[in-house]
Specification:
With 354 residues, the chain is an alpha+beta fold. It is 39% helix and 14% strand. A hairpin with a 4-residue loop joins β3 and β4. α4 runs parallel beside α6 and α6 crosses α7.
């Protein structure tokens, strides 16, 4: 202790030097780590640059210009292609009363079309909207999506009824409201593709008809102005409607005078001596005469009564709603008239997830 007291300044200086040495070592190690990170980033950048240089095609000014022109061409093609999809015009801020009026008009119209074409419907059928007809207040945020489904089902059912099928068994659609449950709804949901700008909604229709009527349904869907895509057809043989037409029974002819041909005698009403078929005569009892079966032609259609489950997807431009993050634009695409403008209307609040 006496030595420390005598050399106090020396001891303090030695302690300060030790602290400064520790701080210097710590700072040096930290700077070395930062230098190593910069070296690693530089090496990664060099590797990426070498990959770009070695890539085919090479990112030259000519190739970059060609890529920009191709991007503009794709955007223009997308704009022109979307014009071919008829858009279903639905009010974006529809109230409950407006939706109920739309629904009742659609159901009444379908009932009249079915009655006019002799199509049998289930008793008091609401085309999957029975719960919405009962409720007094509906979630107005989802009425736009629900109204689109009403118009889709109405358009497809009109085509089915105009084909004069025998009976509509059921209709199924994706769920929208929280109380949409039961056999009238599909587990599949609507598929919205914001990159393409289309909404794909699946439906399912069960009906009883003949094969020719099924062909008329498919022809109507193919020629409709809307974009209807038949995804599946499940056909089951069903019992054909009973008919009251009695089967023709062959008759027998007796011996005819002069050995007349029985077929000629039948043609002129001569069924045996004295009009008594099969009695007397020189020839005795003649065998029954059955007309030969007519040969089927190759163009003849074999009618079958079937139960059909038809899966139809409706593809149309997606209404305004939540959009996916946009991809980075090419420099020349900014201000491009072909690029779709951002829709800032109130319709963006609609829930189109179902």
């Amino acid at each position: 202790m006496a030595w420390i007291k005598r050399n106090l300044y020396f001891v303090l200086g030695l302690a300060a030097a030790a602290v400064l040495l520790g701080v210097g070592i710590w700072y040096s190690l930290g700077r070395k780590a930062a230098a190593d990170e910069v070296a690693s980033n530089l090496e990664s950048a060099s590797t990426a640059l070498n990959q770009l240089i070695d890539r085919k095609p090479y990112p030259s000014e000519e190739n970059i210009k060609a890529a920009r022109l191709e991007t503009e061409r794709v955007l223009q093609f997308k704009t022109n292609a979307l014009k071919r999809f008829p858009e279903v015009v639905v009010s974006t801020n529809m109230a409950t009363a407006q939706f109920k009026a739309l629904l009742e008009v659609a159901i009444t119209g379908l009932e009249r079309v079915a009655e006019r074409n002799g199509v049998k419907l289930p008793a008091k059928y609401a085309f999957t909207f029975a719960e919405q007809r009962k409720e007094l207040v509906l979630d107005e945020k989802k009425l736009g999506v629900l109204a689109g489904q009403v118009l889709d089902i109405e358009a497809i059912c009109r085509i089915i009824f105009e084909a004069r099928i025998n009976e509509l068994n059921s209709v199924r659609r994706p769920t929208v409201m929280s109380n949409d449950m039961g056999n009238s709804f599909l587990s599949r949901k609507s598929n919205r593709d914001d990159k393409v700008g289309l909404l794909d909604t699946p439906y399912e229709f069960s009906l009883n008809c003949f094969s020719s009527e099924l062909a008329a349904v498919l022809s109507g869907l193919a020629n409709a102005p809307q974009m209807f895509v038949v995804k599946s057809i499940n056909v089951e043989r069903n019992a054909a409607p009973e008919t009251d037409t009695p089967a023709a029974t062959p008759f027998s002819t007796g011996g005819l005078p002069g050995g007349m041909d029985p077929m000629i005698a039948a043609r002129y009403g001569m069924r045996g001596r004295y009009g008594m078929g099969g009695m007397g005569g020189m020839g005795g009892m003649a065998p029954p005469v059955t007309p030969p079966p007519a040969a089927k032609s190759g163009a003849e259609i074999d009618e079958k009564f079937v139960r059909v489950t038809l899966g139809v997807n409706v593809v149309r431009p997606a209404p305004a709603g939540p959009k996916a993050p946009a991809a980075p634009k090419m420099p020349s695409a900014e201000g491009d008239p072909a690029a779709p403008a951002e829709d800032k209307s109130a319709a963006g609040k609609a829930d189109d997830s179902q």
